[in-house]
């Protein structure tokens, strides 16, 4: 197990960026901000294969970041991101605290693709604080939906009365709400069958 811990990170980009080939990573006791948050990806650029697994991010504070905990991948890639846990995350004035984006495109001009980096078994536990744009965004692939998303003890409130109050967004995201959430997440689809999830996963 590789550890990243006890850091104060202020940057104009991701505080921590986890890229292909990373596995068995334990990140804890990190203060992030300002910056772009903690990201897995972007993965699968230029139709490449990406493999990330067994990542734990916990006991993290984020303030005035563009994103909180994010998984981002380009269309056209392959491989998988699986067995990820985000736990005990405190956010303050974070634009987008929770994001999965399988349509990541840095700079524009990206074309729709059918292949994607599979995303599965992603757990969000005890994520609380304030946001300024959208609390939760799960934008998953049409051809390879996200599976095994679970959320427990999520409490996210607009930072101010003037803050944007966009509802949680889900597209082809399948999983389970372990507890009630704030705001309510009504767009998450019922979990797909294990057989379907496994057959769609690109082996790494």
Automatic annotation (TrEMBL):
Keyword Cell wall biogenesis/degradation recorded: yes
InterPro entries the UniProt entry points to: Glyco_hydro_28, Pectin_lyas_fold, Pectin_lyase_fold/virulence
Keywords: Cell wall, Cell wall biogenesis/degradation, Glycosidase, Hydrolase, Secreted
Subcellular location: Secreted, Cell wall
Glycoprotein among keywords: no
Main location: secreted
One Pfam family linked to the record: Glyco_hydro_28
Entry similarity comment: Belongs to the glycosyl hydrolase 28 family.
Name assigned to this protein: Polygalacturonase At1g48100-like
Organism whose genome encodes this protein: Camelina sativa (False flax)
Gene: LOC104705740
């Amino acid at each position: 197990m590789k550890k990243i811990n006890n850091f104060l990170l202020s940057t104009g980009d991701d505080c921590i960026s986890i890229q292909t080939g990373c596995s068995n990573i334990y990140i804890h006791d990190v203060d992030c901000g300002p910056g772009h948050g903690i990201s897995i990806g972007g993965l699968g650029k230029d139709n490449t294969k990406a493999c990330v697994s067994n990542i734990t991010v916990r006991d993290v504070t984020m303030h005035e970041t563009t994103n909180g905990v994010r998984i981002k991948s380009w269309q056209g890639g392959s491989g998988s991101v699986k067995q990820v846990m985000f736990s005990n995350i405190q956010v303050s004035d974070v634009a987008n605290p929770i994001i999965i984006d399988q349509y990541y495109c840095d700079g524009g001009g990206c074309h729709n693709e059918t292949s994607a980096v599979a995303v599965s078994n992603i757990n969000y536990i005890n994520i609380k604080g304030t946001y300024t744009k959208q609390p939760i965004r799960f934008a998953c692939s049409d051809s390879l939906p996200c599976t095994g998303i679970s959320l427990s003890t999520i409490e996210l409130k607009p930072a101010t009365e003037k803050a944007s109050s966009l509802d949680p967004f889900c597209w082809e995201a399948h999983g389970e709400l372990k507890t009630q959430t704030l705001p309510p997440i009504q767009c998450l689809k019922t979990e797909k069958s294990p057989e379907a999830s496994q057959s769609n996963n690109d082996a790494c």
